[in-house]
Predict the 3D structure of the following.
Amino acid sequence: MGKDKGTLFFKGQPLIQQVLNSLPPLDEIILVLRDEKQYQTYQEIIDPCLGKLKVAFDREKDQGPLVGMLAGLSSIESDKALLIPCDSPGINPRYVENMLNYPLKGYDALVPRWPDGSLEPLHAVYSKNKTILIIEEQLKSGVRDVKSIFPQMKVCYLDAETLANGGDIFFNLNRPQDLENLKK
């Protein structure tokens, strides 16, 4: 997209602020950023949230979401985490609560899946320890694709249509026109 998606304005506020404001009360919120420069860009937005929000940084800059997942999971105290990308303005408290309250029951991940088989790996719940080990193995092998971890995990696939409940929870911004389409 060429721009930091979290700083794009939608409904009068940066996307990252909109996502943070849409969260229900949580024990932990970890914001994963690329580097100190991105932190400085976000500082005015996130400083009021510090205290309930911790910041983690990618170990390697610009290596994709798998590196970000590793940074976030390595920073949590809980045994599981829900990933939420900063470019998903449709996230709502009900979705977050439903996903976090869904028991892992021996699974390593809870991943929304559409009827056509496509997945929402960046709107999913992951167990901490097993996922960290698998991500580290993938990164050592030079693999950066988030979906590459699933064959090594016990994954519970949840119906994305039911989770979305008619909303745009999974809509994310990948192209400049996506933001324009969302505004309509």
User: Anything to note?
Assistant: Strands lie at 9-10, 13-14, 30-33, 54-57, 80-82, 109-113, 125-127, 155-159. Residues 128-140 form the longest helix (13 residues). The CA atoms of residues 17 and 144 lie 27 Å apart. The mean pLDDT is 86.
